[in-house]
Design goal:
The protein is mainly α. It contains 23 helices and no strands. It is globular.
């Protein structure tokens, strides 16, 4: 009898384990399929020149598909799944929430004229000395521009006047920062100027291409005139309000902060950065100022020496692992001969360390290489702004505090000015999103608050934060979360804590929200349980 009981118990236990494994595998497979369909739907609603994607019937069809996929997502029960599956589930929920927000709140295809201009802005940047196939694609794209801009006039039924003003500005003005266009000095005057330039260049090599470029230019001029004529009737606001901002932060960014907490932390970080800058300036008052590089060769040499210093400091202190064969990284602030420098160029040309840390190593470019190794198909498709910008902002202070610039005290001031710029974005972004500041007022406020800041870069950044709510706060709030997680791991591991191991493990999870990385690193605790229940309640109780 005892042997029979034992055998029965073993078989029962084996069946339970097998059922659990099969159940987990089935859950993961269903979740992955929903995520794939959501991504395909998201791609179909991206910017582009396919007019049929943004006709009213196509938009309505995508909306109905989104509602159906969210219903399928609700039908899955993640409560009994392991932490990793809960993380994956919330990532898919967040993706669907982002799409829901786009349909219900931001609606760029009906509110934002720049949505249509962004899709065609880069066409004139192409070289006309390329292969025949590339030129044929360019001509085909140019021939689609008229129908695309006609669609813009049909769809912009709730256009924001402030967003229309931004579109008119970019149609006729160089923004002083650049949108990835080839270097020209002087640069063409805005999007219209680049299309004029393309038509002139094409006229020297290809009559059909020149005709397509001229036709596209005519339609852009017609859109400019239409926006100018209808501007007085565009009374919709550009801002979305704090309640929608709050929902986005909680349910798309998956950050555990209220608008009030974000505001308080942003103001605190701004005050701290300003105080540190003034102390550093007093400390360095007898030192000569840093001068910008005087030539392209000098600047490139500064960038290469900065990268060498950064790698040596990381290796010497074991701050993180650098894979063998890593390429030498490019810089974000390129040399522009004879051009007025914008804010980041003012910093980078004086000392190349700050922006190179943030944008190249161990910031964005390095981070992208590590993230590309994530095998999980759901996680590898996530690019969370709080995680990406939080890490890049964090490593600036990490390397500064590691002693990287102990022999260059004036360069430390530039790091604190960069901190000040990123902290200033939070209160200004929040006031814009609540309708308290116009874009022009916000630009003046940022220029007033941040040394070396000028109108061009301030406008460039603040346009992004007005059009993409909750992006400006990613830098500070992401770093706050990362530092909080580091402190938790220090306390949990005690003397066994290794900073380099923490950084390597943190990066290994890819670009998912830091709140979810915390679950993986800390395990399932009361904070994770509370956040999980709140997000699940938001999702299950939503009307769509």
């Amino acid at each position: 009898m005892g042997k029979l009981f034992t055998l029965t118990w073993v078989l029962s236990a084996f069946w339970c384990v097998s059922w659990a494994q099969n159940s987990a595998e089935g859950f993961s497979q269903e979740l992955l399929e929903i995520d794939r369909e959501l991504r395909a739907l998201q791609s179909a609603g991206g910017s582009g020149l396919e007019v049929e994607r943004f006709q009213k019937e196509a938009i309505r069809d995508r909306w109905e598909q989104l509602v159906s996929l969210r219903m399928q997502l609700r039908s899955l029960d993640p409560d009994g799944q392991p932490i990793s599956s809960k993380v994956d589930y919330l990532l898919v929920v967040a993706r669907s929430n982002e799409m829901l927000f786009e349909f219900q709140s931001s609606r760029p295809w009906t509110r934002d004229p720049l949505f249509y201009l962004d899709a065609i802005r880069v066409l004139p940047y192409q070289s006309l000395t390329g292969d025949t196939e590339a030129l044929e694609r360019l001509e085909a794209d140019l021939r689609r521009v008229p129908a695309w801009l006609e669609l813009a006039r049909e769809n912009l039924v709730e256009a924001s006047g402030q967003l229309a003003d931004m579109a008119l500005f970019h149609l006729e003005n160089y923004d002083g920062v650049g949108q990835g266009e080839p270097f020209r000095n002087p640069p063409p005057a805005g999007i219209l100027g680049w299309y004029q330039d393309l038509a002139q260049r094409a006229g020297e090599s290809s009559a059909p291409l020149a005709e397509a470029a001229r036709r596209a230019l005519q339609e852009l001029e017609a859109l400019r005139d239409w926006l100018s004529q209808h501007r007085g009737f565009m009374i919709e606001p550009a801002h979305l309000g704090w309640s929608r901002y709050q929902w986005f932060v909680r349910n798309v960014r998956l950050m555990p902060f209220s608008v009030g907490q974000i505001s308080t932390l942003g103001q605190r970080e701004f005050a701290r950065a300003r105080a540190q800058l003034e102390i550093e300036r007093r400390r360095n008052r007898d030192l000569p100022p840093l001068e910008p590089a005087g030539s392209r060769a000098e600047y490139q040499d500064r960038v290469r020496r900065a990268e060498q210093n950064i790698r040596e400091r990381i290796g010497h202190l074991g701050l993180l692992s650098i894979p063998e064969g890593l390429p030498v990284f490019e810089t974000d602030a390129f040399w522009r001969e004879g051009m007025k420098r914008h804010f980041w160029e003012e910093i980078q040309h004086r000392d190349a360390h700050n922006n190179h840390i943030h944008a190249s190593i161990p910031g964005h470019r390095f981070d992208r290489l590590i993230a590309s190794r994530v095998a999980n198909p759901i996680r590898s498709a996530v690019q969370d702004g709080g995680r990406i910008e939080g890490w890049a902002f964090y490593v600036e202070s990490m390397l500064l505090n590691s002693g990287l610039l102990d022999d260059r005290p004036r360069a430390r001031e530039l790091f604190q000015i960069a901190e000040l710029a990123r902290a200033s974005r939070i209160p200004i972004e929040l006031r814009m999103q609540n309708g308290e500041l116009s874009l022009d007022q916000a630009v003046r406020e940022m220029v007033r608050q941040v040394p070396l800041m000028e109108e061009n870069l301030a406008r460039y950044d603040l346009e992004i934060y007005l059009r993409r709510p909750a992006y400006g706060m990613n830098y500070v709030m992401g770093r706050v979360q990362l530092e909080d997680l580091l402190a938790q791991q220090c306390l949990a591991r005690g003397e066994t804590f290794e900073l380099g191991d923490f950084h390597d493990r943190f990066l290994s999870f890819g670009w998912i929200p830091i709140s979810l990385i915390g679950w993986e690193m800390n395990g399932w605790d009361e904070m994770a349980e509370e956040f999980w229940r709140a997000r699940m309640a938001d999702f299950r109780n939503s009307s769509h």
